[in-house]
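User: quick one, fold this
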Amino acid sequence: MRLLLNKDLAQQQNKLHERDMLVISSRADVAEHLAQHIGQAGMGHVKVLETDFLSAPVLTLAENLQGVLIDIGGCTDVDQVVNQVKGRIPQQCWCILFGDSDSISVAQGFVERGMRYFHVGSQLAEITARVLSGPGQEISTRKSLLITLLGCKGGAGSSLLSWQLAQSIVRYRKLPLLLLQGNLGSQDIDIMLGKKIDQGITSHQEYIDVMLSESLLPPESDAPDMQKYNFLIFDQALFSTTKEVMQQQAEHSHCIILVLDRTAASARVALNFINIFERIADNGSQGRRLFICVNDSRPVTSDSLSLSDMQSLLGRPITVSFPYLKEGSQALLEHKLWRGDKKPLEKLTRLILGMGERRQGSSLRRSLSLHSLSRHFR
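Assistant:
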């Protein structure tokens, strides 16, 4: 029996030798000490990248990377760290976190999101043991970042925005992404791209695959055929769904983008969803983010709601506003849209990826009376 155990251990260590491990830390002494401790245990080549994982604008990782050990310092914001890992570390790499906090609740928060965290001051041996055991669980339980775009009115432009967002994300993060179109929307990705979309997943370009979905809801981000992707973008129509489906969409997604035009009809649909989202948040559900985008898919007229009116009606700030574009259909697929001074696509992408995100306060106070609301929604 001992011979068999020793053989299994040797096989695990040989696998660890095949590919590199990386310690990411801005603290050179901590990184070197941890790398030496792991190396002395005979577990392969450990490199050190001296940078702050949470604030570094660019993170270049080797293709043959097996796993990473990430120093999060004194950060205890579990959601911030998890979103950064999802957006920066390839899915095939295992990931172990370490830092200065010895809080049990922080460690448990990471476990609930499929990651392991250790206190660097007292758990050095546990970190080494975890690497030695082959931390495959950190790969199998890590979920893709699920971004759901919900069109609040037909023609609001969620399909175009989902494609543009997919291109923008892979420009920032050269990691696998799957774009899915839900069954209630236009499902015109094949026409947009000029490419036949077969059943199942179709490869379109480097880092981006596309798929026509037959489901009302986004896929489970830990499903077997989804695990290779760091990002899932699900484009679905919201205006023709029930409140029960809205709740399921809110519960399934990590990041939700409501796409509105400047009509009262789209604002009414968005307000229904916001109420459901806030109720879920009030019940203690964490880790979900909501962005509100106004897309001027048609020229703005005197009958269009102003952005300030929409913010008052919704009780939340407008995250970004996309101006009307006069380009032809082919030009709309190019990645150089909305390149003015405000760069709304770039702003939205950076917010989703957690780059320079500013914390918004709670909902803006609803300033219109019920009578005024009903007048706008007639």
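User: anything notable?
Assistant: The two ends are 77 Å apart (CA to CA).
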